[in-house]
Write a structure and sequence with these properties.
271 residues; two-stranded antiparallel ribbon; 2 strands; 70% helix
Length: 271
């Protein structure tokens, strides 16, 4: 009987026990019922304890979940702020580069109007302002580099290399194409890793090494174009498509300067 009562569950237990106690016919039945009551009471206590434990555990988990959600919201807000900041920085950089390009064009246009009256020293001074102290003129470097890589010294190649140097417009020493290959004694010019080379020859050799060993970066196509003395725009497109400065100047890297250099090569070559 006790087992039967226990199996009925706690919901009916009090009523069932009271009725059974009142109708019990022996001390044995009474003892059995009392034992069952104790078991049920203990079961209720155990169940209540488990419920409280589960409730406490859920409370902790809810708190953890709320914390994680709060952190997620903070991270999303931080990400949005960083994206906005990055977009602003890119816009600022593009504005600065556009202003620099306008200034370069104005200077070259002015020189183009006056260069017949300018002395060689004046042109050299402009070249130093453009390239820094450690340099030779764009045209001179173009000829030297073509010999260094064993490419023809044709006019098409010279136009391409002068336009390439003018596009970089760097003041890194002996490094007009802004190569990042470190060489013995070279120093870092900027945060992109562009090098100041120790000498003209080191700069020529470093740039040659980078191009010769960069077939997987698209540099092999540049050397092939130079070797075949291709049209300057064709070679410029190979440079533009390579990893040298892909996407620079809004995708117009080098190609945007070919026409102006070709139209006034002698002037640009002296810078």
């Amino acid at each position: 009987m006790a087992r039967t009562l226990f199996m009925q569950g706690a919901g009916n237990m009090q009523e069932a026990l009271l009725g059974s106690l009142l109708s019990s016919s022996s001390m044995g039945d009474l003892g059995d019922l009392l034992a069952t009551g104790q078991i049920v009471a203990q079961s209720n206590v155990d169940l209540a304890t488990r419920v409280e434990n589960v409730k406490a555990e859920l409370t902790f988990k809810t708190a953890d979940l709320n914390t994680l959600r709060s952190q997620q919201v903070e991270l999303m807000a931080q990400l949005a702020a960083e994206r906005t900041s990055q977009a602003g920085a890119i816009a600022d950089q593009q504005a600065v580069l556009a202003e620099l390009d306008r200034t370069k064009t104005e200077i070259v246009t002015l020189i183009a109007k006056l260069h017949k009256q300018l002395r060689a020293e004046a042109l050299a001074a402009v070249g130093t302002a453009f390239q820094g102290a450690g340099h030779v003129a764009y045209g001179a470097w173009a000829g030297l580099f073509l010999r260094t890589v064993g490419a023809p010294g044709c006019q098409a190649n010279k136009i391409t290399l002068v336009a390439w140097q003018y596009s970089e417009f760097t003041q890194a020493a002996w490094n007009p194409l802004a190569d990042t290959l470190a060489m013995p004694g070279s120093t870092t010019f900027n945060s992109a890793g562009v090098q100041n080379y120790a000498s003209l020859d080191q700069g020529l050799q470093g740039t040659r090494y980078t191009l010769v060993n960069g077939a997987g970066l698209g540099y092999g196509a540049i050397l092939s174009e130079l070797a075949a003395c291709r049209d300057p725009m064709s070679t410029a497109r190979a440079i533009n498509a390579s990893m040298w400065c892909r996407g620079c100047v809004g995708g117009a890297y080098v190609v945007d300067n070919i026409a102006k250099v070709a139209a006034n090569y002698d002037l640009y070559a002296q810078l």
